[in-house]
Amino acid sequence: MFSLERWQEILETISKNKLRTFLTGLSVASGIFILVILLGFGQGMQNGISAEFQRDAANRISVYSGVTSMGYKGLNPGRFIEMTNDDYNYLVSKYEDDIEFKSSIYRVWSGTLNYGDESGSYRVEGVYPDYQFLENEDLVAGRYINYDDQKLKSKIMIIGNKVKQDLFGSKEAVGEYVQINGINFKVVGVYSDPGGEREETRVFVPLSTSQRVFGGSDKVRNLGFTLKPQENFQDALAQSLQFSAEIEEFLKERHLVAPEDTSAINVNNTLENAKRFYDLIGMIKTFFWVVGICTIIAGVVGVSNIMLIIVKERTKEIGIRKALGAQPLSIIGMILHESIFVTAIAGFTGLILSMALLEVLGPNMQMDYIKNPSVNFNVAITTVFILVLAGALAGFVPAWRAARIKPITALREE
Fold first, then answer.
1. Do 113 and 157 meet the contact criterion of CB atoms below 8 Å apart?
2. What GO molecular function annotations does the UniProt record carry, in alphabetical order (predicted)?
3. Are residues 302 and 221 in the same domain?
4. Looking at the structure, do residues 105 and 223 belong to the same domain, yes or no?
5. pLDDT band, residue 54 (cuts 50/70/90)
6. Considering the chain, what is the average pLDDT of its residues?
7. Hey, which bits of 116-175 come out as E strands?
8. What is the pTM of this model?
């Protein structure tokens, strides 16, 4: 029940000890402030990692070859492993029921593009039509590569937004002819990529065309796959890990690579990487919670000590109250109200300041793997409950001690 006299009494007590109350509240406000800021940065790290994985398909499996690090079956180390169309076709055929999107890639690292008076050096890649989905690319204009282009070895190209801006500016690019290393290709599409300009400086042509025009024969540089969705993350991860292991084993056997050689055939699994990163972020968030709560506890201990001092100072007053018939619950309520009030006001101040800081600075923060630090509504509500509980705990021991004071003892107190 609301009692005006009770609130007047609380405010009067606080006003008599302004500095002591301020320092006590500051410790609580600091605890909440630190907790919210730490949790905000934990969420920012999660946002940043999520953005990194969004650049490509979330469940992408990429295979690339390297140089052997050890001899095997009479072959010397130092061999560069070159995958072929046959490797890709076999894997696609064997895992047809499991694969969702797939493409092999033939890269021309330094392709010189010329259009009128404009020119530039860009990475040219021969790919299959599914590569659009492996890279999470969106078409801005025109179309993507299709299987007729692949079959006919068509001299067509898809360019990134950055390439389009460099060569064409504001002019329409689709339908124009651009030379790649002196050979004419027709622009049929322009794409954008979640990875930004760095990913939009590439040019895609049909795989068959790139192998024929740029001397690739039947060689490919990379393989890319995504698997069909599963019911839950754990099933998808298990399937993805098994698929990755079987691909690596097959390619090592086919190209005579030692099973323990870790540099000749490399398989990068984004689901496995995602699990590793999110497990790490979970540990970091737990650490942040522990640090923040320990800071709050330090503030709560300070509040409890102050309330003990207040009870000591008001021993005679409490004795008189009890002599006049005040019930123990009334005494406990009086102390708890003051404790919860101080803790709540200080805590809400720290909460509001921290969330305001995140709101102002978060969207403008540009750091690697940290993006828009923020705290959601559920976390804010959780901190409120922590505040109420902390205030109650801080005042309970002093309140219980006050309730047990005997009137005759209190009246003798000097």
1. no
2. transmembrane transporter activity
3. no
4. yes
5. low
6. 81
7. 118-127, 138-142, 156-160
8. 0.61
